[in-house]
Amino acid sequence: MAGVIHPRPPSDPEEPAGETTLPELVDPHWMHRATELAHTGFWSVARRLPALIREAISLAWATSRRDTAASLGLNVAAGVLTTLGLLATTGVLHQLFAAGPTPDRIRAALPALTLAAAAVAGRGALTIAAGWAQARLVPQINFTVERRLFETTSAVELAAFDDAGFAEEMDRARDRGLVEAGSLVNDTVNLVTGVVGVIATATAVTIIHPLLLPCLVVAAAPEAVTAVRMARRQHVDWLARITRRRRKWMLGDLMANRHTAAEIRAYQMRDFLLSEYHLMTRLETRAELRLARAQTITRAIGLSVTGVATFGLYAVLGTLLVGGVVALAAAATALLALQSARTSLRTAIFATNSLYEDALYYQDYRDFLDRATRRIPAGGHLPVDGFTRIDVERVSLRYPDTDSAAVDEVSLTVRRGEVIALVGENGSGKTTLAKLIAGLYRPTGGTIRWDGVDAAELDPRQTAAQVAVMSQDWWRFPFTARQNIRVGRHDRAGGPGPSVETAARDAAAHDMISELPFGYDTLLDRQFKDGQDLSGGQWQRLVAARGLYRDARLLICDEPSAALDARAEHALFQHLRRHPDRAVVLITHRLANVRHADRIFVMDHGRLVQSGDHDTLMAQGGLYRELFELQAAGYLAGSAEPAAES
Ligand SMILES: Nc1ncnc2c1ncn2[C@@H]1O[C@H](COP(=O)(O)OP(=O)(O)OP(=O)(O)O)[C@@H](O)[C@H]1O
């Protein structure tokens, strides 16, 4: 049947070298599947069909047995009625073409006519019912696969997200894999519908006269071949143009985007962007016209061959009629059957093509789920109810694909009631160590003990419940101000701990929130109606309020005041002081804030190089004192200048 059309390289050869000034785009992650399909011939696809159908039906069956059985069963029943309808039609025609007065012939045809009408009506009803079951099935499947995916992605260990391969597979599974699961089942049902239609017609025709079947196949084949060729050419062409279309979308996005609007105006980038966009549009239009021409030619050839084949069918039928091999009624039914066979064949071919493509993407989803499930931490089972001390014993962590450990054999103790500080230059490993203490990462070496028990043996949910992290790379959650704070402990129902408003006051966020148009109920995302934007510092106050609202035994504050003004910073640090029931791990580059910490740990290239309180470290000399004096000198120089001028 249709030969394989080999894909052109993704970047369009029509694109004149050097005309675009923008750098080359990398292939999108789903491209490998699209290319794979373009390289696969129709028959290779057809050979994999049984396995694909099994996969789709088991997915549908697991989702809803009733709707799966109805979708398939009703379609098969409709097929039986198709056969019956065609046979009844032959009976009608047989009576009508018989000799005798017209009223007599009509009367004789009435039983068969009633049967044919009942078959058509019954078939219509069954098809509608099957369509309804299919329409019910698809959203349920989409929901099932989505739920499975998000239940898994939200449970895998944090370290998995540092693995580039994992993140890419997750994107692939989310982007196409999810969507294609519903289509996989839809196409399977369509394929079954098409095949049942073809079988029903073939059966009827064979019963009427076995010689009619080969005639029918020859007459229907050219249209099927044309359909396959056109579908595949469209796919390959789409593949070849995808890079340019992405570039066009990207440019369009730059020119119609709130976030880029200011810079584009400030740097007068409009003409540059528009000229690039026009270039892409010109090339794209040319490519579309080329495709339209090629498709028209294929279609014209296909229709011509179909016409010749239909003519051939008439000729064969005529010969059979003249020779008395086939009755007139049977020949007329064969022509009706041809129409029905063509429609069913087209349905089956399109379904086969897209079923294969859907299956490739769905496979991505399946592979990802398998891989992700292996990365859900098992954890221990020992209960956790607070702690007196957490001992970090020669703990190391090496990120995937990196040469050196981000945290290298670090030992320290965090005691309840104390504030400890981690300081050091950028990239020295402070955040990584804090995440290890918080249980967000598992050490690749060494052990962390909670009151002497290895943290790996503790119930991870209960451990996490003891920890609050004010992270330096927080996310702007698209919730109201109140929800943004409440998610810190969303399941607290009037239990112990500060109220939302108290936490906001402690983090110097209350006044700012009260001034918002709807106060605590203001939505903090401009994508929503009445949504508002906050500044970086205002968001950070909210993040701090969330951390305080969580009211955890271990509070980890990673640069909690980096974006805060002096007043807000002062207010926040009043609430990060010692508390008998709580341990605070503070990370900050503003060393004035760590002066009162019980112990300060100084990190350098992943190692712990100094520890002690401020006075001890200043007396000791070394990295801490160097960093502290550099900062202090900045302040002193600033205050000394006006004095010098006066
Ligand atoms: N997710 C990650 N994957 C790979 N490497 C990472 C990752 N996160 C951090 N690193 C690397 O680990 C090292 C320690 O990073 P970390 O964020 O712990 O430093 P830090 O002391 O907190 O730095 P800063 O003061 O800039 O916040 C750095 O070299 C960094 O590039």
Description:
By secondary structure, the chain is an alpha/beta fold. The protein has three domains: 48-373, ABC transporter type 1, transmembrane domain (ABC transporter transmembrane region fold, Up-down Bundle), CATH 1.20.1560.10; 386-466 and 553-646, 3-Layer(aba) Sandwich (Rossmann fold), CATH 3.40.50; 476-551, 3-Layer(aba) Sandwich (Rossmann fold). It has helices at 31-38, 42-47, 49-63, 65-96, 102-153, 164-208, 212-255, 258-266, 270-322, 328-373, 430-438, 460-465, 481-486, 500-506, 510-514, 536-550, 566-574, 614-620, 623-645; strands at residues 389-397, 407-415, 419-424, 445-450, 453-454, 467-470, 554-558, 583-587, 599-604, 607-612. The strands form two sheets. Strands 6-7-8-3-9-10 form a six-stranded mixed beta sheet, sandwiched between helices. The chain has a four-stranded antiparallel beta sheet with strand order 2-1-4-5. α1 (31-38) packs antiparallel against α7 (212-255). Residues 1-13 and 640-646 have low confidence and may be disordered. The structure holds adenosine-5'-triphosphate. The chain crosses the membrane at residues 72-97, 109-133, 320-338. One of its GO terms (molecular function) is ATP binding. Residues 1-22 are annotated as: Disordered.
